[in-house]
């Protein structure tokens, strides 16, 4: 049976949140990061779960995961950029066949989505959840619409993204580009990235409004 580890990213600065630490913000009765951590633990397939923190929240994250139910969770200090934190997290994993990399700012991740990622990775080195883009997309230059983009082949990517551990570790070691997700690392170096069905409720908290939406989603699930 394949061995899995998880990396959950919580080291971001939260600049677009007006100084709010979205990782520690209470949502539906829990600090938001714990919703993600608990979803991974519920699946029961992860030997190690690495949570990346920043200098401001590392102490609190260690405290939140100090109970016996979190014995497989390790909180470590991340880097300045997202990719720096991922590289640090990969270095903390002792041995694994696959690793899932998840944004801690997506507290609505479900165990069902994580299980889909486990199933999908059986036949690939890299796989990501995607959802179709429903809005009409415009190309704009100098505040003027220049064209309408065919959205039939456009999808928004989500996390958790799953990779063969050896593959993504090697790619991050030699990465010299700035990237916004780990699938981009695989794409840059010619690794085929498969897709599987994402979850429209698996939103990323980027603005204060997103916190309110996440609260609604998680409270509904718990009723």
Secondary structure: elements and pairs:
Elements: E1 4-10, E2 26-27, E3 30-31, H1 32-43, E4 46-53, H2 58-64, E5 73-77, H3 82-92, E6 98-103, H4 111-120, E7 126-132, E8 137-141, E9 144-149, E10 155-157, E11 161-164, H5 165-174, H6 182-188, E12 194-197, H7 208-221
Parallel strand pairs: 1-4, 1-6, 4-5, 7-12
Antiparallel strand pairs: 2-3, 6-11, 7-10, 7-11, 8-9
Helix pairs in contact: 1-4, 3-5
Task: Describe this protein's structure.
The protein is α/β, with parallel strands linked by helices and 223 residues long. The protein has one domain (4-129, 156-221): Spore Coat Polysaccharide Biosynthesis Protein SpsA, Chain A (Alpha-Beta Complex), CATH 3.90.550.10. 32% of the residues lie in helices and 26% in strands. It has helices at residues 32-43, 58-64, 82-92, 111-120, 165-174, 182-188, 208-221, and strands at residues 4-10, 26-27, 30-31, 46-53, 73-77, 98-103, 126-132, 137-141, 144-149, 155-157, 161-164, 194-197. The strands form 3 sheets. Strands 1, 4, 5, 6, 7, 10, 11 and 12 form an 8-stranded mixed sheet that branches. A two-stranded antiparallel sheet has the order 2-3. Helix 1 crosses helix 4 and helix 3 crosses helix 5. The termini are far apart. 36% of the residues are buried. The mean pLDDT is 94.
């Amino acid at each position: 049976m394949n061995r899995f580890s998880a990396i959950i990213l919580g080291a971001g600065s939260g600049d677009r949140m007006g100084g709010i630490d979205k990782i520690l913000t209470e949502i539906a009765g829990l600090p938001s990061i714990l919703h993600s951590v608990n979803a991974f633990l519920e699946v029961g397939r992860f030997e190690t779960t690495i949570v990346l923190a920043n200098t401001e929240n590392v102490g609190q994250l260690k405290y939140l995961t100090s109970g016996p139910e979190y014995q497989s969770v390790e909180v470590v200090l991340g880097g300045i950029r997202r990719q720096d934190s991922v590289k640090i997290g990969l270095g903390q994993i002792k041995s694994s066949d696959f690793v899932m990399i998840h944004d801690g700012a997506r507290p609505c991740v479900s165990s069902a989505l994580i299980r889909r990622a486990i199933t999908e990775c059986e036949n690939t080195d890299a796989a990501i959840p995607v959802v179709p883009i429903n809005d009409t997309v415009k190309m704009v230059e100098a505040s003027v619409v220049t064209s309408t983009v065919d959205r039939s082949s456009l999808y928004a990517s989500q996390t958790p993204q799953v990779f063969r551990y050896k593959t993504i570790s090697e790619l991050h070691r030699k990465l010299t580009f700035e990237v916004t997700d780990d699938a981009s690392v695989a794409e840059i170096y010619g690794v085929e990235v498969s897709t599987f069905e994402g979850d429209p409720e698996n939103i990323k908290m980027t603005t204060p409004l997103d916190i309110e939406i996440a609260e609604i989603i998680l409270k509904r699930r718990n009723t």
